[in-house]
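Exercise 7.
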Amino acid sequence: MVRSRSFVRAFVVVSLASPLCAAQWVVDASGGGDFLDLPPAIAAAAPGDVLLVVPGEYTGFLLEKPLSIVGLDVGVRVAPLSSTHAFQVANVAAPGVVVLAGLTTNGALHGPVVIALEQSTATIVVDGLDHYAGQPKLGIVDCADVRIRNALLYEVTAISSRLELCDSVAYGFRGVDGAEWIPDGGPGTPAAFGSVGFVDADLHVYRSSLYGGDGGHAYSEFAVGGRGGAGVEIAAHTRLLLAGRPEDLITGGLGGWPTYADGAGVSGELTMSSGFARVSGVTVSSYWNVMSVEFPVPADPVLFVLGASQPGQTTTFRVRAAPGATVDLLLGRNPTVVPHPPLLAEDLLVVKNRTFHLGTVGPSGVVGFNFPVPALLPQGFTFFAQAKVTFSASDVRYTNSVPLVLR
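Solution. The predicted structure, written as tokens, is:
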């Protein structure tokens, strides 16, 4: 069931779009904008400004203030700033928001291109990340709130950070094959790894697949093939929430010849039973050495969108939840992270400007809402959505969030 509201346009302009005082700058490598490249545009922009980037070739960057960098179409290629780093976000404080949307990494033909998100209390949104050459390897360290949507990634590492990964795919790297001087094959790496420093790490994965890297082959039959990497590996006290569909696969890589020790879908550390997992709907190939795995009944709800996020176009929100549940859609300009019990359940992630009651979930298990995005809203404008799902008076849960970046 999909419902429309004729007053959505007025609501968005009045409630979401205040304030709309951020400056917009056009970055165009061909010379048709305010800047030719991203580093000088970032240096000149004030906190809160929006950089609209025309397709072309650009230099990587270090971002240390809250800005929105939004690719206007496919083909915004960002080459590494250093030998490996495509871009880096560091030391951005809340309540600022960083938005990186529609960017494509353009590194060497083979090998990783590092994306580093570090030491930031601001919300960091990465939407629509792809790669043209090289594999984008994501490292997150000491970040309070990272939200990634529609991304293709390799070896995602989150240390002392909160990560929400939605509608994405991540792969581990293949292990190195053995050689005469080191005959054993190297292990494949996990597609995602959650570790803990001084504070807990939180991994929230929705409608996404994680494939561990295959182990490297041994040099000879008398050596040992590398173990396959886990789909996701969690360290002590890391919390993992997985929710989605059966076609969302969390699986380890294949072991290398000749031992073929395949990786687990969800794995704890090798040295101890580690981490806490809550799993709904997705397919996990196996579990190994995980301290606790919870399978909530009914399954945790999930929010996703269909259609373009463009001014003047319609975006359809859909919530998948157990039939009989009632759903409210929360829309807001500002993100937040407010814990919601129980411990492993999803947090409140949106400061709501308006709530839309979508009604009761029918037998299909899906309820929807057509959202006409007003043409008055500018490109680069970002707002957030989350659904509140009530199964009973004692069982109220939140879905993942969806950041909407207008392009």
